[in-house]
Amino acid sequence: MFIKEILIIFLYFFIFGDKIFSKENPIRINQIGYLPNSKKISFLAIREDFDNNKFFNFYVKDKSQKTVFKGEVKLYNSKDTASGEKIYILDFSELETPGSYYIELEDFKSYDFVISSTVYREVLDLLLLGFYFQRCGEEVKYNEFSHGICHIRDKEAVIFGTNITKDVSGGWHDAGNYEKYVTPTAISCWYLLTTYEVFHKKLPNSIKQRLITEIKHALKWLIKMQDESDGGVHHSVVVKDWSYWPSLPEDHTDLRIIAPKSIFATYNFASIFAKASYVFKNIDKDFSKKCLNKALNAYNWVDNIYKEKFIKHYNKILETDAYEDSNEVDEQLLALCELYKATNNQKYHIKFLETLDKLGYKLSIPSWQDVKMLAIISYLLLEERFVNKEVKDILTQNFESFVKTRASWIDSPRNGYKVALYNSEYYWGSNGILGNISCLFVIFSIIKKNPKFSSYALEQIHYLLGRNSLDKCFVSGCGKNSIKRHHYALSVINKKIYPGFVSGGPNSELSGDKLLDELIYKNIPIAKCFVDDENLDSTSWASNEPCILYNAPWVFVFSYFY
């Protein structure tokens, strides 16, 4: 039988040649590895003109090249609509023994991967390192990736439209550039604070300390963005234009401009400082009290001053400004929920319920522009005695419907890579969107005490770490085929990849990014609209730029699997 099998395989390759596989290695696998008791699946990407439903076997081998598992390659779908590929499935879930392995399939060999209960700890370490690299106003020390103190002139930044200066040094750079914005900083802090809130009992002290250190670094900057005289919060710290890019952070000496106060920045500030006040209660009582006072002052600014003097819409003041918004009700909802949790004051609870009625109970993927779901998550994490049972029941039912709908899409054979993104969601920051969806699966597993739903978050980890149509690990410095040239100023200048960043991911929408738009004009499949070529002179900012908002939700997800 063995000889007959070999002859059949040889005949396939002789007749079909390169019609079977794409030119690159067709084995798509999580390049880091798998948990021992989890489902373990790799995919085989086949050209759609190859029409055979079942053909040969694959082999999982250990470091000594010994076969430890033999499985049958099976057709998973006729065509994955996002990638345009025909997908075959390689299921080796029965293999649970910890170790280092690779898959062999005829002339092809997969990347090495690990089976281990601690397999994702390295990734979480890197994701937290990404926040460290984004620190502004201080020296960053990490091997060959170190740099000097940057943006010291932020101590004398000018408030837009005035001659007034203000110290806004510190904080995190937002993305591949050096601007600093309250909204993404606050929302990233929400994920890090929630990570500590939910997982502090299971995470080691080393990880908890890193979380606290990064959170405090960001909060200290956010405090500087608040106007102490009235509680309102400035929107951002920006420069006149992008002409400085790329440059080393310590060489970027342009005088920076502080954007006006905005309702969005102020509500987000109130949310995060209220949350910080109860998370830090047993860590640093004095800091906890300070945070609560800052949160109350911010919320009161909106309540008492804002309505008379400020317009609701925020429009950017310069080309480098960002995070415009036009609907503040979701930000208010989050602020009310976190203030209620921090104070147990029923006035915030009553107002939260009224605002939720105004917004409606329909759930959506959280984003910087829509934080309603973050408010709902915080509410559902409250003890039963603190919530309105009827409201919680409705929210829980809607939550269940939401995750089950996404789960059915992940399980659909039409979805070749088991990715939670709908085809319409391959736009700017798709990997951040995926992180947010993954958080919802994890949160619902915690609320319902049912680990079944967390397995869907695990499928998204596999996608992020290489089991995708691009055969690419989207976390820099991680995996055998990781990001080679992302849109990050330090990487561009120093010609090396800085580890620990989640890349934006495939983006099928025209954006003015010439490298990416060229692919879109060529009708490249949506899941492949991504540029990462170390031989190019320029980089793709619309598909391959890091951002703190992309790292943050994945910190939460990987902490669950720590």
Quick synopsis:
This protein has helices spanning 2-16, 121-133, 182-199, 205-224, 263-279, 285-309, 329-343, 346-359, 372-380, 389-411, 430-448, 454-464, 489-494, 514-521, 548-560; strands at residues 27-28, 33-34, 41-46, 54-62, 67-77, 86-91, 99-105, 108-109, 113-115, 157-159, 165-166, 180-181, 236-238, 257-258.
Secondary structure blueprint with pairings:
Blueprint: H1 2-16, E1 27-28, E2 33-34, E3 41-46, E4 54-62, E5 67-77, E6 86-91, E7 99-105, E8 108-109, E9 113-115, H2 121-133, E10 157-159, E11 165-166, E12 180-181, H3 182-199, H4 205-224, E13 236-238, E14 257-258, H5 263-279, H6 285-309, H7 329-343, H8 346-359, H9 372-380, H10 389-411, H11 430-448, H12 454-464, H13 489-494, H14 514-521, H15 548-560
Parallel strand pairs: 2-9, 10-14
Antiparallel strand pairs: 1-3, 3-6, 4-5, 4-7, 5-6, 7-8, 7-9, 10-11, 12-13, 13-14
Helix pairs in contact: 2-4, 2-15, 3-4, 3-5, 3-15, 5-6, 5-7, 7-8, 7-9, 11-12, 11-15
Helix and strand element order? HEEEEEEEEEHEEEHHEEHHHHHHHHHHH
Structural class of the secondary elements?
Answer: alpha+beta
Number of helices: 15
How would you describe the shape?
A: globular
Q: Could you tell me the radius of gyration in angstroms?
A: 25 Å
Strand content: 5-15%
* Helicity, as a percent range: 40-55%
How would you describe this structure to a colleague?
This protein is 40% helix and 11% strand. It is an alpha+beta fold and 562 residues long. The strands form two sheets. Strands 1, 2, 3, 4, 5, 6, 7, 8 and 9 form a nine-stranded mixed β-sheet that branches. A five-stranded mixed β-sheet has the order 11-10-14-13-12. The radius of gyration is 25 Å and the shape is globular. Residues 1-22 have low confidence and may be disordered.
